[in-house]
Amino acid sequence: MEQLAQFYAVYGSVINFIGINALLALSLNVTLAAGMLSLGNAAFAGIGGYTAGVLTVHLKAPFIISLCGGTLMAGLVGLLLGMPVLRLKGVFLAMATLAFGEVVRIAAVNLDITGGAEGLTGIPNITQTWMIFLALALAAYFLAALRRSRIGWGLVSIREDETAAACLGVDITYYKVVAFTIGAMMAGFAGAMYAHLNYLITPRDFGFFIAVDLLVYNIVGGTRVWYGPILGAALLTALPEILRGIGVAAGPIRLAVNGVVLLLVILFLPNGLASFFTRWRPAAAKAGRPERI
Amino acid sequence: MNLLAQQLVNGLFIGSVYGLFAVGYTLVFGVLDILNLAHAAVFTLSGLSAVWMVQAAGMSIWLAFPLATLLAGGLGLLINAAAFAPLRRRADSQFSGLISSIAMAIIFDAAALGLFGARSVRFPAGTVTVHVWQIAGVTITSLQVGIVLVATLLMVVLTLFLQRSRTGKAIRTVAENERAAMLLGVNVSGIIAFTFFISSALGGAAGVLYGLYFDSLAPDMGRAIELKGLAVIVLGGMGSIPGAILGGLAFGLSEVLTVAVSGTSNLRDAVAFTVLFAILLLRPSGLLGRGKLREA
User: Fold this and answer.
1) Does A256 contact B107 at a Cβ distance shorter than 8 Å?
2) What's the DSSP call for residue A62?
3) Does A8 touch chain B (CB under 8 A)?
4) How many domains does chain A have?
5) Given CB atoms, is A287 within the 8 Å cutoff of chain B?
6) I want to staple B110 with a disulfide (CB 3.0 to 4.6 A). Which of A78, A174, A204, A256 is the partner?
7) Helix (H, G, I), strand (E, B) or coil at A280
8) Is A6 part of any domain?
9) Rounded to two decimals, what is the model's pTM?
10) Domain contains A163
11) Is A113 part of the contact surface with chain B (CB cutoff 8 Å)?
């Protein structure tokens, strides 16, 4: 027990960040499940985090209001953004959400209420480890249930073949906007938790490279099962610590090993780390890349 | 008025570097429909190695520039062999290719940090002799003119190469339809590797020119241009080479004009990305795109 306490004292912050990153990765997984590549989820986390921070710091709102406010604000922005943007596909959707993310980041740098480039400080530290992991468990359960629901199958059908899904009466736009908004709300919630964990949030915490990290967690972990993104986030968040533990010095070497691990996972585990736990139907793996016209 | 003219001229110079960077980006996208996110890392590594060649190895910039460009091309071959070729037959090659190129970018960034250190460096004074001209109240340096000339030359050569030469035609065939190209006897994997070589060489050349223009190179300089490059190729139309050139110039001009109009540099990128967002919604194929939305 004492060893456990000691372990927590040393690695508590890494454990917390694993939880937050896993929540963020799950939020992206909702949209990926429908084949939509969004690079806006870091920005949604930023909206949630800043809303929660502003509610607490400037309006003295209690923790629970601040969390709900962050979640709802991100969801609202997600809904408003989703309706025009989700007509785009593939790389174009990624670009549009990327541009949106940059605008949000620049707004956070330039507004007074967000504290500018130095960020918003003085957010009370309320988030506890158990809250993060309770939220993560609920989110994972929710996603697993969503996948088995009518909406979940609708999203999978959109990913596999959008035209065919539309012909079979799947309301494409509605399903996409629902998935996008759910993802935005989860990201906003994770951002709000992060704001109350870290005391300080800055625009850099929610930039383009964080959005890319979320995608990396999903692909490395495996996008097709609910625990894939969690595995990816856990491995990649802990990797720098693991490398330090086995004596890889900081700096360029550790960075390089990080990159090599990522490359090896992508090359040799096509369905991510989750493929250690699941047997895939060969047909699903072979359902080839659509013929380019 | 003079200030505005000066800003326009500056925008033109920096825009030509953006264009050169984006042409390499868009070339790979046009052929493979895949974004190579390691492009910015090649840009950085090539710029930094050019500084090393001039400073430590004592080469003239006229030798270091082509050498760094060739080195960048070699890195492109490496990216293709390690990150893209093994994934080509996979169902989700768009996503996994994106990730493996990120992995290569991390490895290259680590190499840049390990080889050249984290501090920002610059070309030694006198690497290029700079003349300063005053034309109608606008200051132009010979360095700026040289950068535009080199960038234009490279883009013209690339365009002629793609339109006239047999290899260039093969590249365009592969871009249009891989299977048909194979049936016509084109060595598809060879052509793809060669495309990566050209693309990265152009990105590397842009890195050297960028370093000369701003007189400062750091291991993280690729990060700033990576997003701008993406914006430029969307603006011009994904896969369109003249579009990337025009997009680069437009982006450079919009940057300096925003600064000139608003008086601060804070909003510089905001305007650019708002324009990008609007273009995606109103005209997703870009300014010079092929007028069709590619399937995801």
Assistant:
1) yes
2) -
3) no
4) 1
5) yes
6) A256
7) coil
8) no
9) 0.83
10) yes
11) no
